[in-house]
Prior knowledge:
Layout (H helix, E strand, L loop, with lengths): L1 H19 L12 H9 L1 E5 L4 H4 L20 H10 L4 E7 L28 H12 L2 E6 L12 H18 L4 E3 L7 E2 L6 E2 L10 H11 L4 E3 L10 E2 L14 E2 L1 H7 L3 H7 L6 E2 L2 E6 L17 H10 L7 E5 L9 H17 L9 E4 L23 E2 L7 E20 L7 E10 L2 E8 L6 E20 L4 E7 L1
Parallel strand pairs: 1-2, 1-12, 2-3, 3-4, 4-7, 8-11, 11-12
Antiparallel strand pairs: 5-6, 9-10, 13-15, 14-19, 15-18, 15-19, 16-17, 16-18
Helix pairs in contact: 4-5, 6-7, 10-11
Keywords: Glycosidase, Hydrolase, Signal
Family: Belongs to the glycosyl hydrolase 29 family.
GO cellular component, one term: lysosome
Amino acid sequence: MRKIYFVFLVIVSACINKNKVAPPDVVFPVPTQVQLDWQEKELFAFIHFTVNTFTDKEWGYGDEDPNVFNPVDFDPEQWVKTLKEAGFKGAILTAKHHDGFCLWPSEFTDHSVKNINWQNGNGDVVGELKKACDRNDLEFGIYLSPWDRNHAEYGRPAYVEYYQNQLNELLDNYGPIFEIWFDGANGGDGYYGGARETRKIDDQVYYKWDETFKIVKEHNANTLIRGDARNSLTESRWCGNEQGYIGETNWNMVNPDTLLAMGKKRIKVLNTGDINGNVWMPAEVDVSIRHGWFYHASEDTLVKTPDQLYDIYLNSVGRGAPLLLNVTPDRRGLIPEQDIASLKGWKEKIDKTFATNLAAGAKIEVDSYRGNSDNFDASKLTDGNKETYWATNDDVKTGTISVTFEKPTRVNYVLIQEYLKLGQRVKSFSVDVFKNGEWQQVAQGTTIGLKRIVKMEPVETEQIRLRINDSRACPVISNVEVY
Ligand code: FUL
């Protein structure tokens, strides 16, 4: 009897100890909840619309007759429905581009929709779009160009006050917004109230970013700040190009001071992030559905095809960076039909490709798991719960996850996700399939991050495995899917 009691005690204490296995320590830096929520939304739309749409320019000089702005069939409901159906979670509008024309009736300038013939001066693109977003449950964001080629005071302190006034005005009247987009572009020359000259500023100092960011956060702590990566308060960085891809190696971290010292060379680092970075600053991939950011009739034949958009998707979302895809309302004030067709085709392709997760019904095994505790075992990889994860012991920086199907199955993609609340870790991985009695490597990669979609040549196999080859600390993987 005593013996049975003893065995019972041993089992109970083993169980208790198993559940006592501590989770891995955090590897800093880590995302804030605002950043993580934003990253997880994955798909955002940019909307470039202003006088440029009517003057056929990309950068207005600032001397445009505001009355050229006349979208006779203006229908933000059509924009929002299009974006919503394509799977976007939010839309960011150019409330003011470099030319300085304001798409809302700002009380701080005459250069706005309030002084034009369109809608008898009662038009408000920002307000109408915000309302359409609210009606359709799409999040709303604002782009407010710091560079203003219209304003007479640009380059002097009075302009920064004007800029901050406008920011306050927009956030007061059209908030809360999910993202604010601070553009870094500055070409120097402009109309500047008639001066027609070149004005140079030190963008690190002139715009008083710390103060400007504070205005945003005081209005809503949940608004994500997309800005210059050389400022450590920036919450999302530019991806270093406008072609629609983030690096195959994509760390969510950067070191703002290092970037500052690098000059133009920093653009390369924006694309890859920095394994030694001390600030969590995920990249956002911004790219246009057409060649330019604004509508040009001459680009009607240059709309990206569903396949091109799908490649962009794999090279952004599939590498752990949200995609900000730009659409271009035309002179009618509508998203053109051919662009809508492309977006539809793209969405269908994504939905079809990722319709059935083959890992869901398969057997998942790992070579080791943390403290042999079922809190960190293989089942956590496919339980559909993003808060649970497979992890190894602290001294184990490699690991193997294998997926065994009931019968030979055609596989084309593996989707992997790290649990980022404990920091981004994986440095190198490979994918193998079991074929002709042996393991054959079919893909390899570096970082994983929020989501990594690995595309392989389609292959029929009974077993596929993921090998983590190197990691900053023990790997912590929350999800594995196979398609
Ligand atoms: C750039 C701007 O100069 C382009 O016109 C566009 O707005 C793009 C998204 O950012 O810096």
